[in-house]
Write a structure and sequence with these properties.
0% strand; Tetracycline Repressor, domain 2; globular; mainly alpha; 217 residues; Arc Repressor Mutant, subunit A; disordered N terminus
Amino acid sequence: MRKKASVRGAASTPESRTVILRAAEHIFAERGLAGARIDAIARAAGVNKALIYYYFKSKDALYLAVVERHMKEFHQQALDLLGSQRTVKDKVLDYVSMHFDFIAARADYPKIFQRFIMADSRPFMRIRKRYFSPVARKFQAVIAQGIRSGEIAASDSTHTAISLVALTVFYFSAAPVLKAAGIIEDPYRKSQLARRKQEVLSFARRALFTNRGADSK
């Protein structure tokens, strides 16, 4: 009975679920789903295991909640931007900029996302279908529109979209290697992030919009 009372009391704290998700995100990013332990997450969050299971029925459910938390936020931002009345050029470049900023503000996100996209269980596939697929299709459609209108210098909207996403994501995925190899001392330093973002956008302009008036943006 004492244990149940403890769980109910802790659960009444509005921030407790968010604290657990943040702690779990860091542990999952460092150790992966298989290597993470609920005990470690509980210690990092400063809560007991019972409270974690009060919110999440299993470790898999907690991992899915961590992933969905970010995917839901990115999904909404991306669809709002890509569905706006901006020009094709503005949509493409603003999407790349927004995607970069989204990842830069979440240091653990690249590791979590990489493991997520490689998972093949049904719950993971459902989240991909719900949040990731609509954004990917919309971004590809915007690029296809630009190719048809002659605004974008490319021939394949799918591979162009993949290339732009890779241009953004690779820096963060490779950040540990870049640091270990001495290529960039601190990839997440504010000045380095600003420089990288500038280069990504400059490259996208030159690759897709040169001779189409994109350099004015």
